[in-house]
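Here is one chain, start to finish.
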Amino acid sequence: MVQQESTTPLVIANTTQTKAVVAKQKLTIRDIQRAERERLAQLAAEEAAQQEGTSQVDQQMVAQKQAEAQRQAVILAEQQRQMAMQAEQQQAEAQRQAAEQERLRIQEEQRRIAQQQAEAQRQAALKAEQQRIAAEQAEAQRQVALKAEQDRIAAQQAEQQRIAAEQAEQARIAEAQRQAAEQERLRIQEEQRRIAQQQAEAQRQAAMQAEQQRIAAEQAEAQRQAALKAEQQRIAAEQAEAQRQAAMQAEQQRIAAEQAEAQRQAAMQAEQQRIAAEQTEAQRQAALKAEQDRIAAQQAEQQRIAAEQAEAQRQAALKAEQQRIAAEQAEAQRQAALKAEQERIAAEQAARQRAEAAAKAEAERQAAIKAEQERIAAEQAEAQRQATLKAEQDRIAAEQAKAEREAALKAEQDRIAAQQAEMARQAAIKEEQERLAADQLAKEEAESAAKAQAEAEAKAKAQAEAAAKAQAEAEAKS
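Its structure:
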């Protein structure tokens, strides 16, 4: 708009200007406008080269521009005052009508410029209001997104607490089952010891009795064998029932673990889809503003990379520390289990030494039962260890995902703040450029008016001199 208005030649009365003067004035204005455009282009290039400077340099440049504009305004005011004084001193009656027309034209031009300035101010105010409304809307959207993120994090924490409580309950149940199995094993050993003592006592009594009691002893032995067989069958039935109960509980725990894993996988998939959607939306927004935010995005990217590197190093150190602690705990548990196993083996060896008088078949059966129990215990311990390891891995993965999400959110906030700062600075630079262009236009118009007035005065002076010369020649002739 400024260039179109500045290229329009000033309208001067036909009595005070010729076509040559108008052409010369057009050329002068175009030259000045071309030089001003080159200066503004150079200024814009310098501004682009200095965008990475500090805010103090920008403030100094703005202060220098303001000082230069004020100086130009003072010089222009002084020039206008001197020109007005010269015009008043040199103005003749013959140029009164032309000066009056010029004054009216200047007033009309000033009124037009004032209207344009008022319109520009109104547009700037409207643009500022729109930017404020957009900023408020963006802030409201950010608050909503932040609240949703906080709700999601709280839900995740509640879910993690619930899973931890379930795992603790499962561990408690497993410990109770282990204690029950241990008590059952001790009861069986006590029963076996009692039976062995009964057998030894029976043999001692049989040896002391005479041959005439042999038949009675055989009958008693037959009854005792029947009772022992019944007792063994009862023990076997109890062991089978205990194994069935343990198998049922293990199956229920496995089903519960599979259901929990399915729920966790579904939640993780939903979270990944949400993150992918957020990333897609962020990429679309970034593509729309890529050119405007290129410099700010580079700075934000550098900050984000530094933050990610620091966060990765912190996560790596934390993960290494967690792995070390887990390894120490696993080693301690393994040592405790090994010690308990050694104590149990020693106790069983002592029991076997005390029960050497028992039948070989009973010893083999007990050994088979013991091996089966050890295998079940080992499988349960391995299952618990795997469950603990899996829970720890899930917790670490959740913490890493949370840290990455928080880092991405912080980088996005920094990028938005940088964009807003850059937009504010660009708006200030644009406003300063528009003000300088308006000042330059006013200066050019004032120079054009002064030049036209000077030419009109020179022409009037030449006409007056010619008239005086003609009158002198006429008087000389007469």
